[in-house]
Amino acid sequence: MNDNDLIAAMYGAVSEGARWTEVLDAIKSRLGVASAVFQRIVADRDELIPVISHRDTWSTKEAHHHDAWANSPLNPRFRRDTEPRGQEEIESDQRCLALSAIDREALKHGLAACGLGSGFWLGCRTAPSEHTTMIFHRHAGDERDMTDADLHFMQMLLPHFRQLSRLLTNLGEYEARLSVAEAFMDSTSLALVACDMDLGVHWMNAAAERLVHALPQVEQIGGRLRFRSSDGMTVVREVVHGLRGDTCRVEGNQPAEVLHLRVLRRDAADKRRWGRNLALIALCSPGTAPLIDAAEVADLFGLTMAEAKLTTHLVGGMTVKDFAAHRGIAEGTARMQLKSALTKAGVGRQADLVRQVCQSLARL
Question: Metal-binding as a keyword (predicted)?
Fold first, then answer.
């Protein structure tokens, strides 16, 4: 692999983590070393902790052996006072001023026990108390420092290493924010779908999956929303494209099966931007009972579990008499539970209890 191909492969590994092994194998071959490892390292009190490690093929096989010492607090390189002082560095075991003679002796014997020789590395600070490093170890018994050729090669890699470290940091931040947003949207009872202009589904939360499965007039086929009637398909397309407002309804087999749809957001069409234009749509059906966690109702309103289960079934449309039969208890017992629930919620009627529960959970 020539230098241009190697640099291209490094950038490719930003979005395809599995490619790091190929990249590190190529660098290891180029330098003639025993191992090549890419790490993200964070400071924790007096120690540096490797939280992400990508390794060459051989180092992957020896990972357990290496982690027992080389990637542990036993290694002097993982003391807090050895982290990079500036934004970037090219260093080695022999040159690093933060390492004492005692540290170097510990490194020599510790690395030898791992089947490794002396090390040298690239380092780049990506945030306070956080940096990335690409570290190379010679073969066991080889204690040579960096050669001029090694130094020249790492100087060639350094600006690209700095850039891909920033890209990885930014990508990690985006993925973390996306994970939080998706976790929130998956936990809400509101059915949400992100789709393109052709109704191709790019993301759908659990509530939407349940609703689409429950209603007869809509289904997901081949990754797209499909509506049973051509009129339904047309009206939904027009709303998603913004041709007839933000809301519409699609009839089902029964009046209670009607599907209501609202577009919450449309991406503005802009061919200069990467990615497809997406719409975020909310779905609901008035005839579909909400899915409510009885334990959550018990916690929020100070109810017993028996009272909370009765309340959730009432929210779902069941009568007190039906609930008693469903649970195998006397209707009088169920009514006593309802009376207690009304008192604890501070309301006087069953309808007020249902409304209060629905409003509270909707806002949460």
Answer: no
Backbone angles phi, psi at 119, to 5 degrees: -120, 155
Residue carrying structure tokens 């993200």: 40
Residue with the larger pLDDT of the pair 90 and 187: 90
* Residue range 141-168: mean pLDDT, rounded: 94
- How many angstroms separate the most distant Cα atoms in the chain? 90
What is the pTM assigned to this prediction? 0.62
Q: Name, in order, each residue with C-beta under 8 angstroms of 102's C-beta and a sequence gap of 6 or more.
A: none
Task: For residue 228, report the phi and psi dihedrals to the nearest 5 degrees.
Answer: -60, -45
Domains assigned to the chain: 3-178 (3.30.450.80), 188-284 (3.30.450.20), 294-363 (1.10.10.10)
Task: Using pLDDT thresholds of 50, 70 and 90, give the confidence band for residue 356.
Answer: confident
Give the C-alpha separation, 121 to 40, whole Å: 13
Give the CA dihedral 23, 27, 33, 38, nearest 10 degrees: -50
- Which amino acid is present at 356? Q
CA distance 139 to 117: 5
- pLDDT of residue 274 exceeding 60: no
